[in-house]
């Protein structure tokens, strides 16, 4: 899961080749290059665009861990894309074996279709994970959307994807109901913003994995302390509330730290020869010793606060709300004209 995220965010779009226009192209090679520049394939006449996937529900999902709550989420990726184009829903809270996803769960996904890369086929791989950590894969399946892309179908088409324990597996792992259609491409500037957002997803997945490892180690130790463990299980809501409060406080402190310390460090580095060194030297010889100590401590706590504030602002819950508002904005009349490219 993490490897895929880092592969996506670290990858680069293929370089754009300069080519003559269709009117000036005289050879087959020139025509192909001109079509690539305009976002269309020579064989199919399909322009670059966005494959829209609305995740509705899943049925018959197996329970991966009977000792844990199952909050499934769906990940969709376009096979053959480079870098890999993918998107995922939010977890369906307490979805269990029959989860449903709504607009509040960011269930409308978009993956960029590059007509110059995909040649003739467009295949989506659908994966369902048991929880937000993405450790337990419930099942995976594929759906061929070539007809939707070639016909540039704008009306949502109902599709059911049967899940297996692997692309070559045979075990039945339930099924997912989707609606799929094709639309104009998002402008390059907004695609770059999407990649930046997925870098934060990679960070969160890495943190979640580290947390899972630490939690697993603590779990093996906590078995010797049965009383706290029983209290957590018995008072789950209280434990979750305390954990959420601590997380918010930590994230806010980190964000404040980054907000203050980073600009301070930049200014300090640029002006170091002009005032910082003379100030410290003067303070050392003339001022009480506590003044430079207070300055250093203040800078330190400012740096820490900015760090936690940055984590809070870029935390997953905040990004989910931002994604929900962004989706609503993109689907407005103004958003469609600003975010998406004009149709031919």
From TrEMBL:
<keyword id="KW-1133">Transmembrane helix</keyword>
<feature type="domain" description="C2">
    <location>
        <begin position="32"/>
        <end position="159"/>
    </location>
</feature>
<dbReference type="Pfam" id="PF00168">
    <property type="entry name" value="C2"/>
</dbReference>
<protein>
    <recommendedName>
        <fullName>C2 domain-containing protein</fullName>
    </recommendedName>
</protein>
<feature type="compositionally biased region" description="Basic and acidic residues">
    <location>
        <begin position="20"/>
        <end position="33"/>
    </location>
</feature>
<dbReference type="InterPro" id="IPR035892">
    <property type="entry name" value="C2_domain_sf"/>
</dbReference>
<feature type="transmembrane region" description="Helical">
    <location>
        <begin position="291"/>
        <end position="313"/>
    </location>
</feature>
<feature type="transmembrane region" description="Helical">
    <location>
        <begin position="205"/>
        <end position="226"/>
    </location>
</feature>
<feature type="region of interest" description="Disordered">
    <location>
        <begin position="12"/>
        <end position="42"/>
    </location>
</feature>
<keyword id="KW-0472">Membrane</keyword>
<dbReference type="InterPro" id="IPR000008">
    <property type="entry name" value="C2_dom"/>
</dbReference>
<feature type="transmembrane region" description="Helical">
    <location>
        <begin position="238"/>
        <end position="258"/>
    </location>
</feature>
<keyword id="KW-0812">Transmembrane</keyword>
<feature type="transmembrane region" description="Helical">
    <location>
        <begin position="265"/>
        <end position="285"/>
    </location>
</feature>
């Amino acid at each position: 899961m993490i490897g895929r995220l880092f592969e996506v965010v670290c990858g680069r779009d293929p370089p754009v080749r300069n080519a003559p226009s269709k009117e000036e192209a005289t050879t087959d090679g020139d025509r192909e290059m001109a079509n690539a520049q305009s976002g269309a394939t020579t064989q199919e006449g399909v322009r670059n665009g966005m494959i829209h996937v609305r995740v509705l529900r899943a049925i018959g999902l197996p329970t991966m861990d009977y000792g844990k709550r199952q909050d499934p989420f769906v990940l969709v990726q376009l096979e053959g894309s480079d870098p890999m184009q993918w998107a995922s829903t939010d977890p369906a809270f307490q979805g269990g074996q029959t989860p449903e996803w709504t607009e509040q769960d960011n269930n409308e996904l978009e993956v960029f279709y590059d007509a110059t890369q995909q040649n003739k086929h467009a295949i989506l791989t659908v994966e369902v994970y048991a929880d937000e950590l993405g450790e337990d894969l419930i099942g995976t399946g594929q759906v061929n959307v070539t007809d939707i892309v070639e016909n540039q179908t704008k009306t949502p088409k109902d599709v059911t994807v049967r899940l297996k324990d692997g692309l070559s597996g045979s075990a039945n792992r339930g099924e997912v109901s989707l609606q799929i259609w094709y639309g104009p491409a998002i402008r390059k500037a907004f695609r770059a913003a999407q990649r930046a957002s997925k870098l934060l997803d990679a960070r969160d997945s890495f943190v979640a994995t580290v947390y899972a490892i630490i939690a697993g180690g603590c779990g093996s130790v906590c078995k010797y302390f049965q009383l706290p463990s029983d209290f957590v299980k018995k008072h789950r809501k209280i434990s979750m509330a305390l954990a959420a409060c601590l997380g918010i406080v930590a994230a806010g402190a980190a964000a404040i730290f980054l907000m203050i310390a980073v600009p301070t460090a930049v200014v300090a580095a640029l002006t170091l020869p002009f005032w910082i060194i003379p100030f410290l030297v003067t303070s050392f010889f003339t001022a009480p010793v506590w003044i430079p100590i207070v300055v250093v401590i203040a800078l330190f706590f400012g740096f820490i606060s900015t760090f936690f504030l940055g984590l809070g602002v870029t935390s997953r819950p905040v990004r989910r709300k931002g994604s929900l508002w962004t989706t609503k904005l993109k689907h407005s009349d103004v958003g469609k004209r600003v975010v998406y490219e004009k149709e031919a």
